[in-house]
Design brief:
Layout (H helix, E strand, L loop, with lengths): L2 H11 L2 H4 L2 H34 L2 H20 L7 H22 L1 H4 L2 H11 L2 H22 L2 H37 L12 H15 L3 E8 L2 H8 L1 H18 L5 E6 L2 E7 L3 H17 L2 E2 L4 E2 L3 E7 L6 H17 L5 E3 L13 H11 L1
Helix pairs in contact: 3-4, 4-5, 5-7, 5-8, 7-8, 7-9, 8-9, 11-12, 12-13, 14-15
The chain binds guanosine-5'-triphosphate (GTP).
Pfam families: GGDEF
Cofactor: Mg(2+)
Protein name: diguanylate cyclase
Length: 370
């Protein structure tokens, strides 16, 4: 199978959901939750205003009705978008004011609204801000309770509000951890533990910026295991997986700390070398080649020899990140054509016309899908 065909097939079989970044997914989720909370706030206030009209509390009824109309308008206006912090603060402040007023005028009846407001606050704000904001609200409600309902009940309310604050804080911390984990999972290749292709564009663009701004060189190495299909067919896919893991581990031993190693395809690896000319990168590539070829690999069921073909390309000031990737890809293709188990440089390779279907175009297509 042609290399580019193989990659396009891989691209098609990856679920779209996985190609979205963790941040995009979480941002969309937060937008949805925040919008729904404001809608719920608006509709609840509209219903409550009706009840106040029936009870004859006209001033309260108008106040609550205005809040309900405002919240509903905000939810409608910002539908599917991030609601600005100031609007969220206004939402919570208005609800708090209405609840405090209700506690003063109606005693216990107002108390019931303190709980959903605290919970909403945890959803509307994130991290430490939500913890501090809910604590402040709990204190405000407690003070109002001591003023408007019997003392023993005020204590009970204060304790239950503080319990909600504590539970909510645990929820915020867990969510934060989950977000970090999700972010890591999205950019990690689960088989080898290397970075997958998600951050490639970002890392290459940073290298381009450093070259343009500070004239710092950078080079790429693209490495592909030779005849890996044959190895899979002979020893099985699980054996192939063991070899892939060991190859990744061996590669690490040659690289410096600030070199970035990605697994960008099935048996294909990309290395971004900061501060390296093409000659430096070719030296590293040659070390990698001999490190893989000179020592056998031991899987659970067999011991095999494996070889690696590598392409090398230095970043030039006229390169976009896609062109740079395609340059190294073409050099690798050349290494394959010339017999495999060797290193080829982009400077000695004629650029390919089919750059549009190369690895650069594929990673670009994945980024655009995010
Ligand atoms: N074990 C294992 N195999 C994989 C994985 N991803 C891709 N492959 C296999 O890698 C092989 C790649 O085969 P080809 O595209 O024909 O390439 P090749 O046999 O290495 O040939 P050249 O690259 O031309 O030297 C296929 O058999 C894939 O199934 C993986 O995660 N684990």
């Amino acid at each position: 199978m042609q290399r580019n065909e193989k990659r396009l097939l891989m691209q098609r079989t990856e679920p779209t959901q996985l190609t979205q970044s963790a941040d995009t997914l979480l941002r969309k989720f937060k937008i949805k939750v925040t919008g729904n909370i404001i809608w719920a706030g608006g509709i609840t206030q509209l219903i409550l205003s009706g009840a106040q009209f029936v009870l004859g509390n006209v001033v309260q009824a108008w106040l609550i009705l205005s809040a309900g109309v405002f919240f509903s308008a905000v939810a409608w206006f910002y539908h599917g978008q991030r609601i600005p912090v100031l609007v969220r603060v206004a939402f919570i402040t208005l609800l708090t004011a209405i609840t405090m007023m209700s506690m003063v005028l109606n005693g216990h009846i107002g108390v019931y609204w303190t709980y959903p407001i605290l919970v909403a606050c945890f959803f509307l704000f994130s991290g430490a801000v939500s913890i501090v904001a809910t604590l402040m609200l709990a204190l405000l409600f407690a003070v109002t309770a001591f003023y408007s309902i019997p003392l023993d009940e005020s204590w009970r309310l204060t304790v239950t509000l503080l319990i909600i604050c504590a539970l909510g804080s645990v929820f915020v911390v867990l969510l934060d951890e989950l977000q970090k984990l999700l972010r890591k999972l999205v950019v990690t290749d689960t088989l080898t533990g290397l970075q997958n292709r998600h951050l490639v564009q970002q890392v290459l663009e940073r290298a381009i910026y450093r070259l343009q701004r500070y004239q710092r060189p950078a080079s790429l190495i693209m490495a592909d295991l030779d005849h890996f299909k044959r190895l899979n067919d002979t020893h099985g896919h699980l054996f192939g997986d063991q070899i892939l893991k060991q190859v990744a581990e061996r590669m690490h031993t040659v690289l410096r700390q600030d070199d970035q190693l990605f697994r960008v395809g099935g048996e294909e690896f990309l290395i971004v070398l900061a501060e390296a000319s093409e000659a430096d990168a070719a030296t590293v590539a040659e070390k990698l080649r001999s490190l893989i070829a000179d020592q056998t690999f031991k899987g659970k069921t067999a011991e095999v020899s494996v070889t690696l073909s590598l392409g090398v390309a230095e970043l030039s000031p006229r390169h976009t990140w896609v062109e740079w990737l395609n340059a190294v890809d073409t050099a690798l293709l050349n290494a394959k054509r010339l017999g495999r188990n060797q290193v080829r440089r982009a400077s000695e390779t004629k650029p390919e016309k089919s750059a549009q279907s190369g690895i650069g175009a594929i990673i670009e297509a994945n980024s655009e899908a995010n």
